[in-house]
Amino acid sequence: MSDIINLTLSALINKIKKKELSSQEITNAYIARAEKSKDLNTYITTDFENAIEKAKKFDEKGNFDYKLPGIPIAVKDLFCTNNLKTTAGSKILSNFIPSYESTVTQHLWDEGAILLGKLNCDEFAMGSSNETSFFGNVESPVGKKVVPGGSSGGSASALAAKLTPTTIGTDTGGSIRQPASFTGTVGLKPTYGSCSRYGIVAFASSLDQAGPMTQDVSDAALMLDVISKYDTKDSTSVNFKRGDYFKSLSSNIKGKKIGIPKEYRVDGMAKEIESLWQDGITLLKKLGAKIIDISLPHTKYALPAYYIVAPAEASSNLARYDGVKYGYRSEGENLISMYENTRSEGFGDEVKRRIMIGTYVLSSGYYDAYYLKAQKIRRLIKNDFDEAYKSVDAILTPSTPSSAFKIGDKTDDPVSMYLNDIFTVPVNLSGLPAISIPAGKDKNNYPLGLQLIGKAFEEQNLLDISYSMEKELSFKNNLQDWWI
Amino acid sequence: MSKNKEYLIKRGNSEYEVIIGLEVHAQVLSKSKLFSDSPTNFGAEPNTQVSLVDAAFPGMLPVINEFCIKQAVKTGIGLNAAINKKSIFDRKNYFYADLPQGYQISQYKDPIVGEGSILLDLPDGEKKVGIERLHLEQDAGKSIHDIDPQNTLVDLNRSGVALMEIVSKPDLRSPEEVNLYIKKLRSIMRYLGTCDGNMQEGSLRADVNVSIRKTGDKKLGIRCEIKNVNSIKFMQMAIEYEANRQADILEEGGSIDQETRLFDTKKNETRSMRSKEDAHDYRYFPDPDLLPLELTDDFISKIRKEIPELPDEKKKRFVDKFKLTPYEANILVSDIETSKYFEDVIKNSDIKLATNWVTGELFALLNDRNLEISQSPISSKNLSTLINLIKDGTISGKIAKTVFEIMANESKDPKSIIDEKGLKQQSDPKEIEKIVDDVIKENPKNVELFKSGKDKLFGFFVGQVMKKTDGKANPKLVNDILKKKLN
Fold first, then answer.
1. Across the interface, which of A316, A335, A339 has its CB nearest the CB of B103?
2. Within this chain, do residues B37 and B186 fall inside the same structural domain, yes or no?
3. Could you say which of A10, A54, A76, A133 is catalytic?
4. Does residue A392 have a pLDDT over 90?
5. d(Cα A319, Cα B95) in Å, to the nearest integer?
6. What percent of chain A has a predicted confidence (pLDDT) above 70?
7. Is A430 one of the annotated active-site residues of the chain?
8. Any catalytic annotation for residue A76?
9. ipTM of the predicted structure?
10. What does the alpha-carbon distance between residue A261 and residue A278 come to, in Å, rounded to a whole number?
11. What average pLDDT does chain A have?
């Protein structure tokens, strides 16, 4: 059984196709491990009985041509799943059972995957450490009392702890890449418009994007093949020609031009991050890539712009949670007091903070100074990338300015928490694809990730570069299963 | 500008002019909603026409209904307005129980249609009323407070239905102009098939902006907005009340507060709803779930080709080609169904007679029975036959009225009614001559009196002939023969 959970997604698929393993064996292995790993608090809702049932059915008459034949997968609890509670990590949706399925998860099931359950996340995906979830914080398998990052913290932790062979998260400002970096896993945020947002609980609509979180780069390519599809139910979905990412994967990156943006050398960046980045540059050179110094001059405005745009959209997106139609309701004497009671009891502090920021920056008299200006900055940041891509194919940066921190370390200081997203938010503001791959460890043996940022809709290029690096890096988490 | 008898509010020595602007909310005629595929049927059971999108379930996204866009562009063209090739859907944020998203998707700074105009026919000429803009937005649901004593119930059937908000410039000056404006706007939209204009069903409602200023003043006064008035009569009453209320305040040296008011139809008064200070901050911003709406020239020109002849052009054609008076043309074109009916009738019959019959007998009948022209018991074909029977002398105009009455009750064609009842006109000169001879023979005294100069007795002889023929004798023949015989 320990063999099963140590296999990558593509290895599992091979074994299933060769009938060396059954879906039931695999599903049972992950369930058994999850049962022993409750201390990590990765799951909000499990659906194990159904999963076993589905695995049985798959073994009886499954289609082995599927891309994910009989593969059990747990997903972030931001994806609506038909008939299974979907909470977005919030009290206000703690009793919400959708009657519909998100497009992205539907693609998984359509390719033969089996839902294991719903993974913990920051409330409405607002957080960088999975400490804002109504269902409690998640521990990272990389170390005791260490945060897995956020907001897809449950997903990253479950993946790293081998409770699911792969998973999907959502990334609004780094919510896939930062936890991937903190847990020694691979996280890909596709180009905005690649994966449908239909059925994903919205945080900030113009930034939200679903993506795969995997054990290695080829698994990410495989998952992207499954979930990146045009969807008419999402008006921001883009109908571009998608690649055959897994099949086309190539480790030949000779002659590729990689940009190194000077603005990402931020003050006070840890030495180990600096050397991680330097090692990445050296490795790319060795692989035949050409390193080019570039400038993204508006980078320093990205974080403030992000923390205006994202809360603004969130303040409006979260208005629907009012206790009237579904979800948590706290009665009141009249409509207004019902709203007030429901929302003040139903939302946590971080969500309330962002609703207030968002409401403020959209208010008349402040709109031009904040929201409008942030949108202009967003355009400038995008222009920076466009300019850079005239001379490079991709950009290499650290994924995060530091490695994983301890639970509770930053909860009292929202701004230092927000600083975690400094390398990831420019990507969301520009709608570009980016991937975080594990590239080293800090002095505590916690993983560190490197981020590759690509051109819009050129995920293949991004996957190829990271695939070639991954081979050379041969990163291993070597977890000791201390939580079991 | 109209030299029409001016509508002024008088207070002592002062005269106030009333300035009115309308924001009309017209429901787009469409089978499905603006951003979802739910049906839009009126009067359905509560909450039966609601999709997950309309009820704002988590993760649900709006997708623009292209047909509604076409309808808005069509209406814009009908209002002689600029069509904006790029427009933006914004979120208007506010909390209410019947607003499931917590925001209404509307258009704020960049509406789909820009400036245009509508021509009003006033008794002394035409008046052009400016259109400021037309934008698309979602309707909200309905809160029902009077079914359950403890709770408010919410019906989301209307939630997400497409509305066009058509904003006029402050060009209207009286309740009567408002009446004409609404009717003309409704007429244009019905011609276009973009709104059924049904005010009882709420397909057409308006917010009425009213201010007053002393005659001769150039500066506009402070306005009050009267929300959501759903009939022309109420709009007129509300304006009347509001203008007088404002005049009273100014006359006493007070000043008008800019505020939103409600019209109480039972008490016939407007009441303050909220002041400017309490006005919502709607926190408009572009809806990130929707990309800017971009229309191609091709899309717009295709719609332009679908635009039918509109009331103004049709009126001109009726006057130029059919030689109708502007008044006649106006009443025949104001409703598209009426104009269609009329044109069907005149396809095969005399225009002058048809005009008289449609605007006279037919309108009276419909009015009497409170029917729309589409419900007329007399088809255009039958009316045209009747008119031809008059024209060719088969029946007299008088008999025709009798036939018309029977048609109205039995919906039969006039020929069979005439045959059945034997109402055919006697037009055989020999037979009429025989009857005339009889009448002359039977009334020697009157013949003598007539011959001695009592001309008025001619009518008596006509009456006698008609009596003998049950009114069926051709009146022209009777006249001719009588004249010949008596002189």
1. A316
2. yes
3. A76
4. yes
5. 7
6. 100
7. no
8. yes
9. 0.96
10. 12
11. 97
